[in-house]
Amino acid sequence: MKIIECVPNFSEGRNQQTIDQITAAIKTIEGVTLLDVDPGKATNRTVVTLVGTPEQVVEAAFQAIKKASEVIDMSKHKGEHPRMGATDVCPLIPIANVSMEEAAEYAHKLAKRVGESLNIPVYMYESAATKPERRNLATVRAGEYEGLPDKLANPTWKPDYGPATFNAKAGATVIGARDFLVAYNVNLNTTSVRRANSVAFDVREKGRLKRKDGKVTGKVLTDDAGNPLRQPGACKSVKAIGWYIEEYELAQISMNLTNINITPLHTAFEEVRKSANNRGLRVTGSELVGMVPLKVMLDAGRYFLHQQRRSTGVSEAEIIRIAVKSLGLDELSPFDPRKKIIEYSMQDAGMSPLIAMDLRAFSNETASESPAPGGGSIAAYVGALGVSLATMVANLSSHKRSWDSRWEEFSDWADQGQKLKDDLLLLVDEDTRSFNAIMAAFRLPKGSEEEKTARSHAIQTATKHAIEVPFQVMQKTMETFDIIKAMAETGNPNSVTDAGVGALCARAAVHGAFLNVKINTADLDDKAFVASILEKGQALIEVANQLETEILKVVYEKMG
């Protein structure tokens, strides 16, 4: 599932009724989870965090911006934080399966609608900026609300969307796309801020000033133009400073990781650890401030598992446990993945209800009088179970005592298996969502000709998606055969029957998903699409049958 985060900042932090009206507008949009509402009295500003699928997040953001323009009067606003509008800034942040380019496109879609529908001047910033000089938020916001009349009259500062006229009540809004920012603190076994700062300067991208003879008290070196020279730190896209936390009675390195693709969490931790060791200090643990994408924790856990020469193809829960223990994230307070990881919080809020169930609850839900979850969801789940068995064989083989030299080979297979398992589990819920979307389309009004046309279009769109989802189950399950076959042929021979059961599950999943493809094609008007997908599906069925036969032959031969 594609997931983006949106963090709009509203120019109201004191009137709870006004804040509640804005957040209520967000809550009306299905498919969006409101993660956090953080008002500040001194700044008179509220930072809201919401996540969900891109289209739904854009809709929720628009409704929030609209409500803010109705209930906030900028001509009466005072606060310590720089601001230029009722909705001051509204960044979109890619979380899962969304590129920065896609996030920027959604930002422009939102900005265009805000400008045209609400008559609010909109400027684009960061990765959605239309001009290099508009990338920096501080530059765009210079002059704040009070300077808007002059700014809008200047052709250089014509808004990217909306009118170049002063909206006294709503002001102007800055919309953009940016990377996820991780606020991260690493704990040291010292109370010295000076020593903590020395570590921070080693790590942060900005580094430290170059001084004569490398001495702290030495004269600052400059270039020919008189500009001070700097020694860059070890981590790009990292800001850091040392400070003392009285509550914990220790010093920390407080960092902002502004691009986790350039410097991941575990890299920043390791560089702090190296610098601390070199200075006679020791890292005792760390803490995450706020929430993080699942990928941050999985990348960290896999890094530390690889350092241990152990299979990285274990469950998400185990990878996260390794990350928490290795980073010492539970030193100062318990670390709850359900509250600290964005995707898990979404699951708990009902975004992925089926895969959040236990076995009995899932079986009970399937057996109930509700038509969903049905065969499509079950096919996806059976496919996930099949590749889970192959992944188990890979992990057992990776840790087989006499096969130490092959641990990385089987770890790679297990990694692939975990990825496919997770993809198929997501399709368990997606198949049910696609069925529910068809039912919702049929419930649309059909009184006028315009309503009939819209209803028909919605039904056809939802039906096509309900075909595509089980076809994706077929495609993903077909990828699992490579792992299952490899484990039957080269994996731990004591587990060859597990690979055999995996093959039986995979074939059942492909056949089951194809039944759902076929049943839904009857209601689709696009006959060319129907003919194409049925042909492709039948071809996959034949290959699945052949692969199951080949794998079972290997299994029976090894069983003797």
Share in β-strands? 5-15%
Round the mean pLDDT to the nearest integer and report it: 92
Q: What's the total helix number?
A: 17
The CATH class assignment of the largest domain is Mainly Alpha
Any idea what the shape is? flat
Helix proportion: 40-55%
List segments where confidence is low: pLDDT < 50 over at least 5 consecutive residues: none
Please count the beta strands (DSSP E, at least 2 residues each).
13
Radius of gyration, CA atoms, in whole angstroms: 28 Å
CATH superfamily of the largest domain: Formiminotetrahydrofolate cyclodeaminase monomer, up-and-down helical bundle
The first-to-last residue Cα distance is 44 Å
Q: Give a short account of the largest sheet.
A: 7 strands, mixed
Which CATH architecture of the largest domain?
Up-down Bundle
Write the H/E string, N to C. EEHEEHEHEHHEEHEEEEHEHHHHHHHHHH
Q: Could you please say which CATH topology of the largest domain applies here?
A: Four Helix Bundle (Hemerythrin (Met), subunit A)
The computed structural class is: alpha+beta
Number of domains: 3
